[in-house]
Design brief:
The protein is an alpha/beta fold. The protein folds into 2 domains: 199 residues, 3-Layer(aba) Sandwich (Rossmann fold), CATH 3.40.50; 110 residues, CBS-domain (Roll), CATH 3.10.580.10. The protein is 40% helix and 22% strand. It is built from 18 helices and 16 strands. A hairpin with a 2-residue loop joins strand 4 and strand 5. Helix 7 packs across helix 8 and helix 15 packs antiparallel against helix 16. The C terminus is likely disordered. Bound molecules: adenosine-5'-diphosphate and magnesium ion (MG). The site of magnesium ion has 3 residues, from helix 3.
């Protein structure tokens, strides 16, 4: 089941939203509706869904409707039309008690302006959400301390927010959202006010935290680089509408229209795309336990001439070719003897494609993406090398609008 599902959602600001909604449904544009009725279409007939554990980014220029959309997701504002499902429950239909409970239990929120209480310590700020839920002091301080540590602020528990830099204050904001232990984090331009270097640190840490804690993140930004870096998938908004949803790679390689094309055309793919953006799961894997006969069968099934070998915990062991597998089988030799390890090049998920070009040109095997010793995915040499060619022929890419 989707963690968040937004279905045909519309928000119109003004005195008679239903009238404007009719116009919208008749195909009138935001600008025309504003001109003729004075009403503003904030979000227009938008749909998307976010899977559990997914990092979903909404990207668009200022005024495109991002904040309106995220506020509809936790129903800080009422929709004009459409539904928002959180874990399958329609938040737009909930009564007040259920809504409050859903927000507290499921939806953590981090804003651009940190919204910290100046006269409270870091610890008390982080524990605030738990305090208003009536959690006792000991438990909330325990949880608050843990999330303060998670965001790297251990030692600052009794500081007051104004003693901290902007980046650290935003860490407090993040810790406050984490302390509530919600599955979902909603982040509206949370890093947009930070200096570039601090911002990069925060991005890296958020990715690590999300991975470690398994959060589902709905993250808003107006910054394309930030979106490409963070998002498992990205929704691009324009004038209240979602114009494309896709992975970084989808959006760079197949922009849905001229607007998106113009947005992404100056991006150097190799400097933005990371291994995790282009890796895929290996079609087949085998373990020592399976033995050479099984390995051969698996290769035959998919027509592969080699297979990656992992142990039961998915730790990467090496590559076995079909010839060696047959030899191991016929001569009753352990597969381990034939494993190729030295010639296999590894990258981590955040290695830039740019740094893999040289490797791809030299190696004969796919590049493995290893995270904590485990095989996260593989990248074919061709995908890197052909990606480069595409990048160079950018001018010839045609777009339709
Ligand atoms: P973003 O977050 O992408 O910058 P917003 O969601 O804040 O965009 O705004 C989307 C559109 O809705 C804009 O045209 C904005 O002026 C309008 N808008 C947002 N909030 C209100 C409001 N409370 N009343 C009237 N118009 C609003
Ligand atoms: Mg905004």
């Amino acid at each position: 089941m989707n963690k968040i599902e937004v279905s045909n959602l519309t928000k119109i600001f003004g005195s008679h939203p239903q009238q404007a909604l009719k116009r919208l449904k008749n195909g009138e544009q935001k600008e025309q509706i504003l001109d003729e009725t004075g009403m503003t279409v904030g979000v227009s007939e938008s749909s998307f869904s976010v899977k559990p554990g997914e990092f979903f980014v909404i990207m668009g220029l200022s005024g495109s409707g991002k904040s309106t959309l995220i506020r509809l997701v936790n129903r800080l504002i009422e929709p004009t039309d459409g539904e928002v499902y959180i874990d399958g429950d329609d938040i737009t239909k909930m009564d007040k008690d259920k809504l409050i409970e859903t927000r507290r239990k499921k939806l953590g929120m981090v804003f651009q302006k940190f919204g910290l209480f100046p006269h409270r310590s870091v610890l008390a700020n982080v524990g605030y959400g738990l305090e208003i839920q009536g959690v006792n002091k000991q438990e909330r301080e325990e949880k608050a301390r843990r999330s303060i540590e998670d965001v790297g602020l251990k030692g600052y528990e009794s500081s007051s927010p104004d003693e901290l830099s902007g980046g650290m204050q935003q860490r407090v904001g993040l810790a406050r959202a984490l302390a509530n232990d919600t599955d979902i984090l909603l982040m509206d331009e949370a890093f947009s006010a930070l200096d570039p270097l601090i911002r990069k640190d925060m991005q890296d840490e958020l990715l690590k935290l999300q991975y470690k804690l398994g959060k589902t993140v709905l993250f808003i930004t107006h910054d394309l680089d930030e979106a490409l870096k963070l998002g498992d998938r990205i929704a691009i908004m324009k004038d209240g509408r979602i114009v494309q949803v896709g992975t970084s790679e989808d959006i760079l390689e197949n922009p849905a229209n001229e607007y998106v094309f113009n947005f992404v055309k100056d991006v150097d793919r190799s400097k933005v795309l990371e291994a995790s953006n282009v890796m895929r799961k290996p079609e087949v894997l085998t373990t020592f336990k399976d033995g050479p006969r099984m390995a051969i069968r698996k290769m035959e099934e998919v027509g592969a001439s080699s297979i990656f070998v992992v142990d039961r915990e998915n730790n990467f062991k090496g590559l076995l070719t079909i010839d060696d597998a047959i030899k191991a089988y016929n001569e009753h030799i352990s597969m381990e003897e034939f494993l190729i390890t030295d010639d296999i090049h590894s990258a981590s998920p955040d290695t830039l494609l740019n740094d893999l070009i040289g490797v791809a040109a030299q190696t004969k095997y796919p590049i493995t993406v290893i995270e904590d010793g485990k095989l996260a995915g593989i990248i074919s040499r061709v995908s890197i090398l052909s990606g480069l060619v595409l990048g160079k022929e950018e001018d010839e890419v045609t777009t339709q609008s």
